[in-house]
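Lecture notes, structural biology module. Today: joint structure prediction for complexes of two components.
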Amino acid sequence: MPSATLLGQSVLSGIFAGGLYALLGLGLSLSWRFLRVINLAHFGFIFLAAYMIYQLAGVWGLSPFAAMLLVVPCLFLLGVALQALFLRFSINEFGSLLVTFGILTITEAAIQWIWTADFRRLETPYGTASYRVGELFVPVAEALTFAVAVTLSISVWALLRFTYIGKAIRASADDPDMAAAFGVRGHGLALLLSGAVAATAGIAGTFIALIATLAPAQIFSWIGVIFAVVILGGLGNPFGILAAGLLIGVSEAVTMALTAPSWAPLVSFSLLILILVLRPGRI
Amino acid sequence: MRRYLPAGVLTGVALALAGLPLAHPPAFVESILYLVFFWIALATSWTILSGYSGYFSFGHGAFFGAGMYTTANLAGPLGVPFLWTVPAAGCAALLLGLSIGAVVFRVRRLRGELFALLSLAVTFVLATIVLNTRLDGGPGVYLSGVKLPKLYASPASTIYLLGLSVAFASLIAAWLMRRSKLGRGLFAISDDEDVAEVMGVPTFGYKLAAFGLSCFLAGAAGGVHAIFVFYVTVAETFSITVPLYVVLMGVLGGARHWIGPAIGAVFIIGVTYSFVGGDWALAGRAAVGLIFILAILFLPQGVMGLVATKCRRRRAPPEAAATTAPALPVVRTLLPPGPVLLSCEDVQLAFRGVRALAGVSLDVREGEILGLVGPNGSGKSTLTNVISGYYRPDAGRILFRGKDLAREPGHRIARLGVARTYQIPRPFARLSVGENVALSAMFGAAGLDREAAERRARECLDFVGLGDRADALPTALNLHQRKFLELARVLASGARLILLDEVLAGLAPSEIDNALDLVRRIRANGATIVFIEHNMRAVLALADRVVVLNYGQLIAAGLPHEVMRQPEVVAAYLGGAHA
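The predicted structure, tokenised, for the full assembly:
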């Protein structure tokens, strides 16, 4: 049995991991719920953004946050282009899963071609700094990621709930024809939303670059756990994503502390299977 | 004889390839051909479940991996002779598949993308378990010490021959299934599973059978592959590459066609091996991704799907003018009330507190046309769904020829002799009109074999006036014709009791007369009919008796003209003044 401090540190790192999961899952959840696009390319976009941040900040010496201001608009345009493709070919949900899988493979190959398969690390002052709170260490970059995840979730929730655009997006997702009859411009909104989703990939990529060592092969290792978070959280529900991210993050961290790190994937995937079998109606 | 031509050609090619090792070709030829066989086996075994039934699995890596690790453990540490481990590998994957299917296939909503995700998750769970137990333990399993038996030529050729055998077995299985009852049932499941079940296809059993066969073949291929790679690791075995490539090959070649995935496999392996070494391998991967995208955008049915469409277009006769059923003279037979055929006793069903059926009791008599009417939301369609087995009632009994249908699955109810139509026609979109009707004759109460079913389908299509459209796809029919296709299906099923759910809705007045005529003729053929309808003129013209539902309760029953005058019935239709 590990000590209380070790367990506390595990829970804390689980919470931070959960924040990161929520940040990564948010875009996936939104595009699945409101665009009916199961966007595997999202993972490719996140890592593309992370590598761009690495290039701008790590190699060319920009501040990571200035780099983010450059990267996010690029990603926005990428998202708009992706949705334009889907609208042009009117692809169904399952087709979107396959097409974005293809895009993911190409993105991964492109990343490996430009930045090679070697590990890349963005060295910043934020990367290693940490505060000591009582017995626990609080790493700055992770804490910042968590704060951003919470802020972004709240903003998305408020946008969807209170603004005209948010209501129009929800109406359009529930009944596109009826929404169009009431004057909602479905295509324009879909392009905007897809751009916004890709922009969240830009933000998520920035923080991945800040806290993790990058390698192209890692892209695939995120897919399972993020899908578990998205499905557990409920589609299009920012707070659900946050809660699910925390739940999975903490239970993984505790599993790692109690057994071996290699058992961790079992938690998220078993949860995913259980939800799918017991509560398929959530989707 | 032409029908057996593909299998003959396939066997010939396989025999010629089996003779290749005798010519002592360079080792790399056998290796590359083995890899082609390996991918053909995997892709074809995948299509047996996913292509035929539409349950796209991203978890083929799990079953292939189960086979790989079975052989790795049996042939490695345990020292079992290699040849024995291959069927064992298949059986291990089969057991894994059956136990997953037995749970997953019971959940009605786990289809499409959810099934794909679930199967992918299964792969990762299995990978984690293998990695952390003695099956692997982390460093991987070396099999370089395993002795290969010499079948003929050299021991190294044994791998080649085994790969060839598994590929051949997969292709033959896929070919046999396609024309079998199992295959037809799976195609129907892929187009509309709920309708398939109600028409008599035992969906659960068929999906399980296809899954089991698919897993067995994948496991056997994995068993052979373990020796080919001779060093088995979790990262390689359960990587995303296997499901990705398998799905890609299936989609590209045409997943609904038995040889489609094999064509896709040959093409993809060809592309991948044209780009070898360094950056070229990367370009090859990107090319595969790009081909994948283009295939889905421009060729969603795959190469063989395109070929099939071309063939169909060439065969189809020129567009005929809208056909009308020949107006045969109709004998209005006033039958004496027969014995009770179906008896609902206090049937109840609630959806989250909404009582859709609040204790309905009614009898349907042999040979009658019973009009079932009521305002929208009164429970007519729900009752149809309960009798045909789509919903299971919360309470009550439904006796049909002495048997309680309330606890029977839909396909058994169909076999007992109940058939239904849908208000919005639900034909199987990718089966031809003739195949749609034949399916009903095969799986319904008639239970005919394939040839007899096809004959019966032609008769029924002639009967409803669609005889010249048998080769068309249902999408080429107009609404009126699709409604008549629904009628042909129930007719072909040989059902004793036919539930007609608003067959007239959306038809023009002249088409309505046509349809009414047809319903009478179906009854004259010896069927009993429950006629659900809003069109009162039609109900009064057709029904021998009428029952009225409102708020899930029976509020009146009797002769048509008398019932329609009762104050409760008037109130239900016109509002609460009398209530």
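Point to remember: The first helix of chain A runs from residue 4 to 35.
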